[in-house]
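Team,

Forwarding the record for the chain on the shared tracking sheet. I've put the sequence and predicted structure together so nobody has to dig through attachments.
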Amino acid sequence: MGVRGPVPNREEDLARPRARKGSDEQEAKKGLMRKVTVPRADSDWHPIARQLYDSLKKSGQADFYQQSDWALAFALCDDLSHYKKSGKRSAQMAQTLYSALGSLLVTEGDRRRVRIELSEPVPEQDSAAVVAIADYKKVLGVD
């Protein structure tokens, strides 16, 4: 599940970068990401399980998911669906499911604990040359 304890501050909220704090953090081992095929959600799932699964596909942490992550997400949503549909619900089962979802970095707190921060996309801006050419075209009446 990653590091336990309080949720760390966002990197921009720190007075100085973590790398300068002299911690004994080791660099991550590197590997190659493989092509991923996201399994389709089961049409018989409970609506909440389906909504969660669909939201995972659209969320930023999905950029880091590999085939095994999607397989786990599928299995957990299937279990969540059975749990939500059952007449008798167990608090222990709910805790187990929500804890396992944390390993998929579903919430911001889960992501920050493992030092993953999602940021707003930077809007694309046209270069000054492109803007200047467009302005010249307007003045000259050229389309």
